[in-house]
C-alpha cells in the first residue's frame, strides 16, 4: 500500500502529465490487487472522486483492460457483442433496473467520452463506462473490501493534491508582481478570492453540478470558465447559454434541439446546446430566468442524463456537466413560484457564493491597476495612474456593479482625460473628478428631487428585500431620466449590461 501511495506522491512531485500518473496508478492497482480492484475502487470512490476513477477507467479502456463482471451484467454486454468473464455470485444484483430499462435491446457501449466503442467479437472483458456505472465488480476483491480502503483514501488524497497542483500550474491567483495577464485571468489577492479559487479547484474534478451565486459583475462567468479549465473536461467545449436572452418560445429548442418539422420553421434537424457541449460543460448563465416549461425538461436531463430533441420520438444520452449561475435568490424565486424547487435542489448540489467586490479589500486597487494598464495601452498613453484621493475613493465606494462597474469607471475616466487634452507623452493621473463616483452614488442613493415623503417612506419600510427593491427601482428610474430614457447609457451609468438592466427593470415591474 505504501508503495502505491509513495508512487503517487512521487509522481505528483515530479509533475508528470495526468495520463502518465493514471497509467502508473492502474499498473500499481493491478499489481497489488488484480484487475477487479480497479472497478471496485471506482464503485467505492464514486461519491468521493468520480473523476480520478473515470480516468483510470479511460486509461484501462484504452488498453483494453480485462475485468470480471457480474453474470447478469455480462449477459447485457453479451448482447452488444462483448463477452465477459464471470463467476457465480450470490451477491445482491444491482442491475435489475438496468435490465428492465433495456430489456431486449443491446446496451449501447460507449467509452467515457461518450464515443461509441467498436467491440471485437470475442475479446473477453472489454469494459465500458456504462458497465462501470452500474457497478462491475469482482468476487475476489469484494471479499477483501477492507483492504481497499486505504487505496480509496489515497485516491482521494491524490485528487486533492492534483487539484491543488493544477490550480498552481494554471496560476490560481494572479499577484501584483506578475505581469498583467491575458484577458481571462482572474485577479485577486484577498482571502475571499483565495478561498474561492481553492474551492473551485477541489470541486472542478467532481462531476457535481455547481451553482455560482453572486451579484451582477462579480465574475461568475469568469469563474465558470476557470472551473471548466480545471476539470477533466477542459479539452472539450464549454458552451455558454444566457438563459435570460433565450426567447421563451425558442428556449426548449435552443437547449435540446429539434427535428425537422417539429414546428414551422424547423426546416432541418438541429442539435441543441446540450449536444454542442457533449463531453464538456454547459454553462447556464442567469438560470433563474429559464421558463418554467423548460425547467421541467432540464430537471429530467439532470436526473437521467438524456435529452429529447423537440419532435423526436426517442431520447438520446448526453455526457454534459452543468454549471449554472444566477444573481438572483433562487430560494426566493422558488418561494414565489418562479422556479421549480426540485430543479433548485438538483442545481444547488454545490453552491459557490462569489463575494462582492466591496468585500475583497485591496483587490479593488489591484483590479483598477489592470484596467488602467489596459486603457493606457489602448489609448497609447505613456502612463496612466490614479491619484491618492482616487484610490481612497475607489476603496470606499460600495461597487454595486462590482468588477464590471470598476472596469467601466476606469475606462470612462481615462477617455475623459484624453478628451480633455491629455496627450501620449503625458503622465496622466486620474483624479476623483474624472472617476465621478459621486454621480454614480447619486444614481444609486438619490435624494429624490421632489422629495415626496411617501417615496422616502417606501424606501425605509417593509422587509429588507422590499427596501432593496425600492432603492433599485429608484436608481433605475433616475438613471433612465438622467439619460433621456436611453437604456444603453443608463445601463452603463449603473455599471450594468443593457440586457441586465432590461431584466432588472422587468423584475422590478418597471417594464
Ligand atoms: N477577479 C477578476 N479578475 C479580473 N477580471 C474580473 C474579475 N472578476 C470579474 N472580472 C471582469 O469583470 C467583468 C464582469 O465579469 P462577469 O461577466 O464574469 O460577471 P458576472 O458575475 O457573470 O456578471 P452578470 O451576473 O452581470 O452576468 C468581466 O469583464 C470580467 O472579465
Q: How many strands, what sense, and barrel or not for the largest sheet? A: 5 strands, parallel
* H/I helix tally: 25
Based on secondary structure, the structural category is: alpha/beta
Q: What is the number of strand segments?
A: 11
Which ligands occur here?
adenosine-5'-triphosphate
Strand fraction band?
5-15%
Strand order of the largest sheet: 4-5-8-3-9
Distance separating the two termini: 65 Å
What coarse outline follows from CA principal-axis ratios? globular
The number of domains is 4
- Note poorly predicted spans: 1-26, 29-74, 76-160, 165-183, 442-460
Percent range of helical residues: 40-55%
Radius of gyration: 27 Å
Keywords: ATP-binding, DNA-binding, Nucleotide-binding, Transcription, Transcription regulation
Protein name: Anaerobic nitric oxide reductase transcriptional regulator
Organism: Hydrogenophaga electricum
Pfam family, one: GAF
Describe the structure.
The protein is 52% helix and 8% strand. With 511 residues, the protein is α/β, with parallel strands linked by helices. The strands form 4 sheets. The chain has a 5-stranded parallel beta sheet with strand order 4-5-8-3-9. A two-stranded parallel ribbon has the order 1-2. A two-stranded antiparallel ribbon has the order 6-7. Helix 1 packs parallel to helix 9, helix 2 (18-33) packs across helix 4 and helix 9 crosses helix 10 (191-204). The longest helix has 25 residues, at 145-169. The model is unreliable at 1-26, 29-74, 76-160, 165-183 and 442-460 (pLDDT under 50). Adenosine-5'-triphosphate binds at residues 186-188, 214, 216-222, 285, 327, 367, 403-404, 407, 500. It comes from Hydrogenophaga electricum. It holds the Pfam family GAF.
Amino acid at each position: 500500500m505504501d508503495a502505491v501511495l509513495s508512487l503517487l506522491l512521487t509522481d505528483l512531485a515530479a509533475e508528470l502529465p495526468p495520463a502518465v500518473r493514471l497509467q502508473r496508478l492502474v499498473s500499481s492497482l493491478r499489481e497489488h490487487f488484480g484487475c477487479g480492484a480497479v472497478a471496485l475502487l471506482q464503485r467505492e470512490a464514486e461519491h468521493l472522486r468520480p473523476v480520478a476513477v473515470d480516468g483510470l477507467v479511460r486509461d484501462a479502456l484504452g488498453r483494453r483492460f480485462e475485468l470480471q463482471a457480474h453474470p447478469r451484467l455480462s449477459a447485457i454486454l453479451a448482447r452488444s457483442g462483448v463477452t465477459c468473464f464471470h463467476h457465480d455470485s450470490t451477491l445482491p444484483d444491482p442491475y435489475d433496473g438496468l435490465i428492465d430499462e433495456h430489456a431486449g435491446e443491446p446496451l449501447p457501449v460507449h467509452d467515457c467520452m461518450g464515443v461509441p466503442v467498436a467491440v471485437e467479437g470475442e475479446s473477453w472483458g472489454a469494459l465500458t463506462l456504462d458497465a462501470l456505472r452500474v457497478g462491475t465488480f469482482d468476487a475476489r476483491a469484494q471479499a477483501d473490501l477492507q483492504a481497499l480502503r486505504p487505496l480509496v483514501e489515497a485516491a482521494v488524497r491524490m485528487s486533492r493534491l492534483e487539484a491543488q497542483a493544477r490550480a498552481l500550474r494554471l496560476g490560481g491567483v494572479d499577484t501584483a508582481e506578475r505581469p498583467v495577464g491575458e484577458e481571462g485571468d482572474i485577479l485577486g489577492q484577498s482571502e475571499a478570492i483565495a478561498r474561492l479559487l481553492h474551492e473551485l479547484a477541489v470541486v472542478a474534478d467532481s462531476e457535481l453540478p455547481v451553482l455560482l451565486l453572486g451579484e451582477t459583475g462579480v465574475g461568475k462567468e469568469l469563474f465558470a470558465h476557470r472551473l471548466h479549465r480545471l476539470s477533466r473536461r477542459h479539452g472539450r467545449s464549454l458552451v455558454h447559454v444566457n438563459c435570460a436572452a433565450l426567447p421563451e418560445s425558442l428556449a426548449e429548442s435552443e437547449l435540446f434541439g429539434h427535428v425537422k418539422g417539429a414546428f414551422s420553421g424547423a426546416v432541418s434537424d438541429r442539435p441543441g446546446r446540450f449536444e454542442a457541449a457533449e463531453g464538456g460543460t454547459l454553462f447556464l448563465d442567469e438560470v433563474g430566468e429559464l421558463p418554467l416549461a423548460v425547467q421541467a425538461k432540464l430537471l429530467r436531463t439532470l436526473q437521467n442524463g438524456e435529452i429529447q430533441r423537440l419532435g423526436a420520438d426517442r431520447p438520446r444520452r448526453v455526457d454534459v456537466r452543468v454549471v449554472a449561475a444566477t444573481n438572483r435568490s433562487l430560494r426566493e424565486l422558488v418561494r414565489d413560484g418562479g422556479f421549480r424547487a426540485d430543479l433548485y435542489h438538483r442545481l444547488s448540489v454545490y453552491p459557490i457564493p462569489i463575494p462582492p467586490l466591496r468585500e475583497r479589500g485591496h483587490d479593488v486597487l489591484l483590479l483598477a491597476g489592470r484596467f488602467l494598464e489596459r486603457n493606457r495601452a489602448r489609448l497609447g498613453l505613456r502612463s496612466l495612474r490614479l491619484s491618492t484621493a482616487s484610490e481612497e475613493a475607489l476603496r470606499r465606494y460600495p461597487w454595486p456593479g462590482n468588477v464590471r462597474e470598476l472596469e467601466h469607471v476606469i475606462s470612462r475616466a481615462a477617455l475623459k482625460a484624453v478628451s480633455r487634452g491629455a496627450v501620449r507623452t503625458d503622465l496622466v493621473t486620474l483624479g476623483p473628478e474624472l472617476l465621478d463616483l459621486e454621480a454614480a452614488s447619486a444614481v444609486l442613493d438619490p435624494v429624490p428631487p421632489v422629495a415626496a415623503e411617501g417615496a422616502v417612506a417606501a424606501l425605509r419600510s417593509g422587509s429588507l428585500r422590499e427596501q432593496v427593491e425600492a432603492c433599485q427601482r429608484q436608481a433605475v428610474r433616475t438613471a433612465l431620466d438622467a439619460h433621456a430614457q436611453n437604456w444603453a447609457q443608463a445601463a452603463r451609468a449603473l455599471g450594468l449590461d443593457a440586457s441586465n438592466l432590461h431584466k432588472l427593470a422587468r423584475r422590478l415591474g418597471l417594464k
